[in-house]
Amino acid sequence: MCYSNSSTSSNETLGKFYQREIVTLPTAEPTYYANGFTFPSWRIITHETQIKLMQWGLIPSWYSGASPIDIASKTLNARIETLSEKASFKRLVSTQRCIVPSSGFFEFQQKGVEKIPYFIYPIDTPLFSMAGLYDEWLNRETGEIIQSFTIITTIANPLMEVIHNHKKRMPLILDQSQIQPYLHGEENINRYSSQSYEAMQAHKVDKHILFSQTANIPAVQHPIVDNIGQQTLLL
Q1: Cα 212 to chain centroid, rounded
Q2: Nearest-CA neighbor of 190 among 84, 45, 75?
Q3: CA dist., res. 121 & res. 105, Å (int)
Q4: CB-based contacts of 209: which residues, under 8 Å, 6+ apart?
Q5: What is the rounded radius of gyration, in angstroms, for the C-alpha atoms of the chain?
């Protein structure tokens, strides 16, 4: 599953890449590492002309509980195979799709009891365009409106099967030609379930940095060097 992400592109880069306005966006600092369970704000692409800021971890509009964080912690990801079955997502599939821009994401390979972290990043484009869904929730006690999103996941491609070898999942990533049809609901979302995006590569990263309290630094994405002096790169 995708619970760790990065977004290091400038507002200007995102605006040009997705042909969206950025006038209302605050200045963005690079995010080298973000843990979804901290519910970070993210720059999100919808069918609208402006890039939005939303919280990672979808809070359904109908939620009436006392702790929205509880449900948000369960909706960081959404399996494409069960979108039409889940109350949090099925209303959103046709009309509230979004793109989650990503400079690369982190995933773990299981070897016995050891978990080996990898950074996975694009080969031929500056960004991954992860497919997502979004919703808007009103806190009736404070009047605050929270827009939030989830990242859709699908079956792993051959590279991710090797890395995420336990659950064999990965984010649903769209190529540039698919973005507008996806956002406008022109394609049945189930057609993407068999899609295998493969324009990516990966390398091992230092788990001591990744698990530290100061992981949001450039070094968290740097490849580690093995004991014979080679970078650990997977294609």
Answers
A1: 21
A2: 84
A3: 7
A4: 215, 217, 219, 220
A5: 17
CATH class of 4-234: alpha beta
| pLDDT score of 226 | 66
Q: Could you tell me if 57 and 68 are in contact, meaning their C-beta atoms sit under 8 angstroms apart?
A: no
Alpha helices in 62-174, H assignment, sequence order? 68-72, 158-163
- Name the pTM for this structure: 0.94
Four-residue CA torsion sign, 194, 196, 197, 203:
positive
Whether the CB-CB separation of 130 and 172 falls below 8 Å is answered with: yes
Which residue do the tokens 């979302």 mark?
189
Residue 166 and residue 74 in contact, taking contact as beta carbons nearer than 8 Å: no
Query: Which pLDDT band holds residue 75 (cuts at 50, 70, 90)?
Result: very high
Find how far residue 151's CA is from the centre of its chain: 5
- Any residues with CB less than 8 A from the CB of 43 and at least 6 apart, and which? 7, 11, 14, 25, 28, 51, 52, 53, 101
- Kindly provide the b/e burial profile for residues 146-176, where b requires at least 16 CB atoms within 10 angstroms of the residue's own CB: bbbbbbbbbbbbebbeebbeeeebbbbbbee
